Amino acid sequence: xxxxxxxxxxxxxxxxxxxxxxxxxxxxxxxxxxxxxxxxxxxxxxxxxxxxxxxxxxxxxxxxxxxxxxxxxxxxxxxxxxxxxxxxxxxxxxxxxxxxxxxxxxxxxxxxxxxxxxxxxxxxxxxxxxxxxxxxxxxxxxxxxxxxxxxxxxxxxxxxxxxxxxxxxxxxxxxxxxxxxxxxxxxxxxxxxxxxx
Length: 197
Known about the structure:
- The protein is mainly alpha-helical.
- It has two domains: about 1-85, no CATH class; about 110-190.
- It is about 80% helix and about 5% strand.
- Strands 1-2 form a two-stranded antiparallel ribbon.
- Strand 1 (about 1-5) and strand 2 (about 15) form a beta hairpin.
- The longest helix is centred in the C-terminal third of the chain and has 32 residues, at about 145-180.
- It starts with a strand and ends with a helix.
């Protein structure tokens, strides 16, 4: 049994290590075939399937992605020359900044908002793909529809996707900005405790 979230739930929570390993195998498989890092699978698995708090989920997910993505990128793709290193380094620089802001955000934004953002992002992606479906079905010869209609539907799907994500992301960012005084107070308290010892 694995025990976790002792600081969130009185007495903590327990779950079978075998079940966690099975969930990890599913995530590893998806990461290897789709290059997604597993985040879109591990978040719902951890929060809804395993009952892990949002804050713990984010940190745990980032840690396991380091190993799964690192292994698959080196062992499965780099040795065959399928990595664009310049692009990867550029993304890494941006990710380092983004992860600092994101980690601070999880300290001041309630977990329900983070779970809501995740749900909205998944639904927005679904709507985007749903609106792109007619164009793909026309290309495969399953239906007949004018190019202007399929292009319009695909464009609407793209706008809905980015619109929903940007609106909710803006809401999260505003909540983070409002929580900056809390972060400063927490940092000041930590520094004061460190100096007094």
